[in-house]
Design goal:
By secondary structure, the chain is an all-alpha fold. The protein folds into 2 domains: 65 residues; 85 residues, no CATH class. Helix content is 73%, strand content 0%. The chain is built from 6 helices and no strands. Helix 4 packs across helix 5. The termini are far apart. The model has no long low-confidence stretch (mean pLDDT 79).
C-alpha cells in the first residue's frame, strides 16, 4: 500500500504540474473585477499538487510510525461492494440531477455517500452535507458565475429562490 500511495501521489503531482504549465497559455477577455479563464484551473491544480504532497508525506509518516509491521489485508468483497455502490450512487445522482436539480439532490447524495464510507455521527453527516452544498452553490454561482442544474417543475421554482 505504501508504494502505491507514493506512486500515485507522484503521478498526480507531475500530471498537475504539466497541466498547470498548460493552463498558463489560456487566453480570454479579462474583465475588471472578475477572474480570468486561467485562474480556476491554476488554483485547482495548485491545490491538487499540495494535496498530493500531503498524501505522500502522510504515507511516509504512517510507515515510520508502524515500523516494519505488516498491515492487515481487508476483505476484497466488502471493498468491491462499496465500490459498485459508490459508482451506482454517482450514476443515479447524475440521472436524477436533471429532474430534482443540484440544490435539492446534493445533500441527499452526500448523506448517502458519507454513510457508505462509514460515517455514523448524524450531526456531522447532516452538517457537512448541507454546508458543502451551500459552499458549492456559492462558489459556482457567485464566484465563478457558472449555473448549476436547477431541475424541473416545482424543483426549478425552488432553485430560483437560491440562485
Amino acid at each position: 500500500m505504501f508504494k502505491g500511495e507514493i506512486l500515485i501521489s507522484v503521478v498526480v503531482f507531475l500530471g498537475s504540474l504539466y497541466l498547470y504549465f498548460e493552463s498558463i497559455k489560456f487566453e480570454g477577455h479579462e474583465v475588471y473585477g472578475k477572474l480570468g479563464p486561467a485562474y480556476w484551473p491554476k488554483f485547482l491544480l495548485l491545490c491538487l499538487m499540495v494535496l498530493s504532497v500531503l498524501v505522500a508525506v502522510d504515507a511516509i509518516r504512517e510507515r515510520k510510525k508502524r515500523g516494519g509491521q505488516k498491515e492487515e489485508a481487508q476483505k476484497p468483497e466488502s471493498g468491491k461492494v462499496r465500490l459498485f455502490l459508490a459508482v451506482g450512487f454517482i450514476v443515479l445522482y447524475f440521472i436524477l440531477m436533471q429532474i430534482f436539480g443540484f440544490i435539492i439532490l446534493t445533500p441527499f447524495f452526500l448523506i448517502a455517500f458519507m454513510v457508505l464510507l462509514g460515517e455514523r455521527k448524524k450531526k456531522w453527516i447532516f452538517g457537512v452535507s448541507i454546508g458543502i452544498t451551500i459552499l458549492i452553490v456559492w462558489a459556482f454561482t457567485k464566484a465563478m458565475y457558472v449555473p448549476l442544474p436547477r431541475g424541473q417543475w416545482i424543483f426549478l421554482d425552488f432553485s430560483h429562490l437560491f440562485y
